[in-house]
Every structure is written in structure tokens, then in C-alpha cells.
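The instructor's notes for this session suggest beginning with a concrete chain rather than abstract definitions. Hand out the sequence below and ask the class to guess, before any prediction is shown, which regions might be ordered.
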Amino acid sequence: LRRYQQEGVNWLGFLLKYQLHGILCDDMGLGKTLQTIAAIACDTHLRRERYKRTGEERDRPLPSLIVCPPTLVDHWQHEILQFCNETLVPITLRSKEVKERASLREELLSSDKVLILSYDSLRLHLLHLLNSSISWNFAVLDEGHIIKNPSSKITAAVKSIGLCSLHRLILTGTPIQNNVLELWSLFDFLMPGFLGSAQHFQLHYARPILDDRERKEEAKVIEAGDRALDRLHRQVLPFMLRRTKEEVLQDLPPKIIQDILLPLTPLQSHLYRLAVRKGGEGGGGAQGEKSKTLQTLTQLKKIVNHPMLVLDAEQEEDKQVIAQVCGPGVSPHDINLSAKLLALHELLVDCGIGVEEEQSSSRVLIFAQMRSMLDIIQRDLLEKKLPAATYLRMDGTTPVHQRFEIQKAFNSDPTIDLLLLTTHVGGLGLTLTGADTVIFIEHDWNPMKDLQATLLQAMDRAHRIGQTKTVNVFRLITKGTLEEKIMGLQRFKL
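After discussion, reveal the predicted structure:
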């Protein structure tokens, strides 16, 4: 363990000693998993020794529970086996079979093994786990910001199981993503009632802090917001530990973020103008206007990525549009139709990827929101223009049990040039230090989703412990479009 990780384990030990609970919110990539495993292993060992001496019920061995995104179940199992296989025994539950659940109950009631479940699996097996009279030593939530919505079914399931545990711990690099009320939900799992009811928290903390942000010109509002924030800090900070990479990893190479602004191709410009014009046509009432606006935004997002996301190569009418704007004989699979595909081609060639006579020194993660965009990249760019490039792919259709194997293969095999990922799958918890270049093809336009957190999580798949090279991050953004405006609003956060 590095020095700061030892300090993290000591902090967790302090919480355990005084029956307290907390949030380990170190920067992504600093080893929250390893620190947690070390703390569980230490406490498990000490508990065994105490039980040998006393034989008392309060010291008997207890199992621990780790809840994480499905992509990380195998990762947790692998890390426990790698670092603490003599102390901890990890087990998973992948089946819905009653027999397996019954045998699992017997296994857990008489041991201090570590059960690793996804959030959905926990919800699915909740009643069985609650009815099994199992008391847990640790209940750990990895990527714990998943329970930020206090009214979701997953949050309710997690909180009910938390009440059956001695020690509760949340791991997250982003404890607050959109608003301060999310912090209440996390602490309601850790220490129910510590921050009062949701209504009390909203009145005394969340509302004054939000008003301070929105109405900065009013002195009374600013003062009330500052007081609320100060009270909240004093109340929660003793139960939170956060270290940034800049503070603790002087030897970690830098991360360089570059925005590449791209002019739309003629076909993209033509389709973009048509979509804007069509979206501006009135009619349909308030509800109809809202629906129409969402449809227009979806169309614009697809157009700036690639025209063939809105056109059909088999439709005669769409073929004529391509011919009229681009000239006769232009294939719908021509990379020149999309500014982003052209830029991606140039970036990959600059990295030496797909260039047969040159050994690539870079390895790349390519992130997209839509699987259909990854399909186009794979078919029109990699297979046709860069056939020598080697790549793997991970998206929502990739079976959960295969995702860890793909991660392991990419990190261990330097002959694999690329990994294609959807942001939703690749942005949570994976360790992909085999890459030194990250390229974002598209970006989430939904204002209800926190773009900053999503981007930072995806970027830090590569920029974490184990990385020895400078990580270059490229964001492809189309000029003169709504995408440029949205990304401009977010840029100051990064």
C-alpha cells in the first residue's frame, strides 16, 4: 500500500473502532477498492482472533456484503483473490435458482465470507437476504452515488440491507453530482436520521445553498447560504475522506484535455439546417411542442455525429439527398460524410494505429453514447480504412461476465490497439491503464445528467494508478452547433 492508502485504511479503522460509518471519496483511480479490501481483511482477522479467545456471540464471524455495478463484480472478486486470498473468501450469486440461494444462506450464516452482488441482484434477492436473518459485518457500496435518488427502488433495497450491518461504507469519486440533496440520501444509508428528514435537510441546507448559487446579488441570501454550507461541512466532513491525485500522486503522469472543434461536412450542414427549420415550425400545443423539441434535439445530436444516423442507405429518397449534396456515386459509408469520423481517422493515424509499416506506441479508448455510432466506426473506419488495427468492444449488449475479461485482455495485451466503449458501460469502475489516449466521439446533451461527472469518470478509466504515460484526452465537438454551446457551458468545470 502507498502511504496515503495506509492512511486511508487507518481512517477506516478509526471509524470501525467507534462504530461509525463513512464515505471514502478519493479521486477515481487512487485505489478505493484496495483500501476497502485491506480494512475488511484486517477487521475479519481481528474478529476471528477475538472469537477464539472469548467465544462470545458478539465476536462470532460475520459475512460482509459488497454491492457494485455489474461490470465490477468480477473485478472485486479478482482483487480480493489477488491481495487477500488467505483472509477473505469472495463469493458471488449469479443464479435465480432457489436451491442456490438456499445453499448461499447456509454458507453465509456460518462464515465470514464476502458476498459480491450487483445493485440489481441485491434488489432481486432482497427479500431472501432479509428473511435469512443474516447479520453483516460490512456493507460496502461501490460507486455509491447510484443511491443518490432517495425514492428509487435500488436505494430502498440498499438502505434496508444496511440496517442489518455493523459497518457501512460508501465508495465514490463523486459524492455529489447534481445537487446537495444527493448527500442526504448517502448519509441516510450510513446513519439514518443523522442529517434529519429529507424535508428538514431541504429546508435547512439544500434550499439556502441553492438560493446562494442562483441569487448571488442578494446579501442576505449569500449569508444564509454560506452559513448553511458551513454547518453542513462541520457535520459531514468527519465522516468523509477525500484525496485528489494532485495531492498524493506526484509520480502520476499528467492528463491533457484537448477540445477539437470541427466544421460540419456539407451533408451534415444541410441536414442540420433542415432539422432546425422543421423543429421551429409551430403547432401541437404545449405538450406537442415539448415532444417536438426533444425529437429535434435527438435529430441534431445524431446529425453532428454522422448523417447516416438519420438517413437510410436503402431509401431512394435519402440516396438522392446524398447525391444532390455530395455528388453522384458517393457511398453512404464514405468517412468524408462525417466530420467526426474524418477527425477520428486522422487521430488514429497520428497515433500510428492501423498503419502497417509503423508500430503503434499509443493505445486508445474510444467512447460514444450510442451503440449505433460505434457500429459505424467499426464498419466504415476500422474495417475499411484501418484493417490492420486490432480492437475490442464493450457496450450494453456485452454480457456482464465478459466485461472483466475484456478489461483484462486489453490491459495485458499490448497488441490490441483500441477499445470501443459506450460511455454508460465504460464510465463506471473499470481500470484501463493499458490506454494512454482517450477520444470522446459524442457527448450527452441531456441537461439532467451531469456531464462533468460522466466525462471525468470515463477519462479516469485510463488516468489512474498503474498508468506510466501521459494521458491525452480528445473531445470531438462540431463548430457552430448546439453541441458546441453545451460543451462550452461545461468546459469551465473540467
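Then share the key points. The chain is about 50% helix and 15% strand. The radius of gyration is 25 Å.
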